[in-house]
Amino acid sequence: MSRSARPRTASVQVWQGYLTNRGKRLRDGRFLVHGVRPITRALACEWPLETLVYRLGGPELSGWAREVLDTSRVPRVGLVPELMAELGDGMPELVAVAVSRPGELDDFAPGVPGGPPPVVLVADRPDSPDVLGALIRTADAFGAAGVVITGPGADHHDPRTVRASTGSLFAVPVFRAGGAAQVLAFAERQRRRGIPTRVVLPGGTTGIPVDEYPFDQATVVVVGDERGTWPGTDHLTIPGAAATIGATAAATVALYEMARQQHRDYRP
């Protein structure tokens, strides 16, 4: 199914709102996807896409965009260039309108007793969509079972987050939590399921060196430049003179050391 739109339409105004209005994204359960890798990954992961919006007229669409339009079964809408420009990212040739997949952390139960220990990455109060997207990409790269975002920080459906994740948002379950208490309750539920689980905070100035910590259990890794209070957790240090190396770097170091100790094949 395909149709073209030349004058401004109600749909275009709604889609434009998804660029900057978090409330509209949440209310409608929709968000925009820009870029070759994110759209390709969304299709490969069979993420529910409501519409593919493509540019009418010149310049000619790329071979990639034409192939996506020709091979996917997602309904299509063509817009004149001046309307496409209002959907962000300069003059995109293709934008996907994606449907949110709601999920509750209280229902998340990764792993099985006696099986490989699952890893969950927690982004505590992230204030940057770019950093949040990079954390989701890091979690995907190291085979994490899921990502949890605490507090009122950056939105994982923000177009900047989606692009920064390079499509990993569509491959890793992402949940939101009110704060530390909900995440710690998740870890306790895992323990009651017979999956021993530790909660660690890497990247601080005090604690156990990350390369000396025994990653022999399921692990919840909490990162954030301004982390809140996390009682009963293990603090890990990363050697070096810097007081902090940032959330993304801390997550990468911890997840790599975990994979190294467990001799896991963490390749996607």
UniProtKB/TrEMBL annotation:
Pfam families: SpoU_methylase (PF00588), SpoU_sub_bind_like (PF22655)
Domain SpoU L30e-like N-terminal positions: 10-96
Keywords noted in UniProt: Methyltransferase, Transferase
SUPFAM superfamilies in the record: alpha/beta knot, L30e-like
Boundaries of every tRNA/rRNA methyltransferase SpoU type domain copy: 119-227
GO molecular function: methyltransferase activity
Single Gene Ontology BP annotation: methylation
Keyword check for Hydrolase: no
PANTHER family per record: RRNA METHYLTRANSFERASE 3, RRNA METHYLTRANSFERASE 3, MITOCHONDRIAL
Protein name in the entry: TrmH family RNA methyltransferase
Highest taxon of the lineage: Bacteria
